[in-house]
Amino acid sequence: MVRSLWSAATGMIAQQTAVDTIANNISNVNTAGYKTSQNEFKSLLYQELQTKTTTANGDTKPIDSQVGLGVRPSSITTIFRQGSFYAADGNNNFAIDGEGFFAVRGADGTIYYTRNGNFNLSRGNNGGLVLSTSAGEPVLDSKGQPITFNANLHASQIVATAEGEFGTIDEKNNIQSLGIQIGLFQFNNPEGLEKMDGSRYRQTVSSGNAMNEATTNNIIKSSIKQGYLEGSNVQLADEMVNLIVAQRAYEANSKAITTSDTMMEQANQLKR
User: Fold this and answer.
1) What's the burial of 13, exposed, middle or buried (CB within 10 Å: 0-12/13-18/19+)?
2) What are the sequence ranges of the domains in the chain?
């Protein structure tokens, strides 16, 4: 096969992946806690067109004659840039100012991490109120246990400090601690987290173990803002520009295939 056909085909496949990533970013522009993704590419193998020497004594040429064989996606990196905050009704909405993640326990028992603080109070099996996600997954406290409140409490009575400690307001408008602190966790390499549905992430070997902000020293702790949610950090203008760039690159690779096909057709006509 002509190298240009293969190289251009790999370029079209790579740009299609870029368009897929951009489309996913745009579709989640209003998803709370969503973090934008960015494509990274790398070149494929190079082929040597000539020998490394043209002399009888074997002296190496100062410049190689190599031609590339295309491109492929190397990674899709998640950009954990802080999103903007917006007010959300209800005391069960929380936004993280910093690098921390909330922890939730999935139905399969696995602990997932998220920046989406759109939580609800649901009735637990013991009759208490459990802070959970919209999918019913319990939110974990700083000890790794589901956050549960007394059934007699009303959602409007529960407040959270900037440190994530829950309490109630007494008659003198003083906060009475409930001895519960929402869990916040950090990772040495958050880009290594495995992306899951529902704006959730799963710990991997690449991300490293979760570091509990309440028990880990020498890390910059995050703060909690009750009554707010963190919006997506997708920059729509940037994504539209990236989409145009990817489209132009896709068209250029398509043109390269068309040109190679025309050249092959003309070469085949020479023997007629």
Assistant:
1) middle
2) 3-80+235-269, 85-230
Task: For residue 22, give the amino acid letter.
Answer: I
Question: pTM, whole model, 2 decimals?
Answer: 0.83
Sign of the dihedral through C-alpha 15, 17, 22, 27 = positive
In the numeric block, which tokens belong to residue 66? 């190599």
Digit-by-digit pLDDT tens for the chain (272 residues) are 578 888 999 999 999 999 999 999 999 999 999 999 999 999 887 777 776 666 666 677 777 777 878 898 899 999 999 999 999 887 889 999 999 999 999 989 999 999 999 998 887 777 778 899 988 899 999 999 999 888 777 777 788 888 888 888 777 777 788 888 999 999 999 999 999 998 999 999 999 999 999 999 989 999 999 889 999 999 999 999 999 999 999 999 999 999 988 888 888 888 66
| Nearest by Cα to 31 from 110, 113, 114, 147 | 114
CB 146 within 8 A of CB 130: yes
Q: Residue 177 burial by CB count (10 A; 0-12/13-18/19+): exposed, middle or buried?
A: exposed
Within 56-183, strands assigned E span: 66-68, 71-78, 85-87, 94-97, 102-105, 111-114, 120-123, 129-132, 148-149, 158-160, 165-169, 175-181
DSSP state of 126: T
CB 33 within 8 A of CB 114: yes
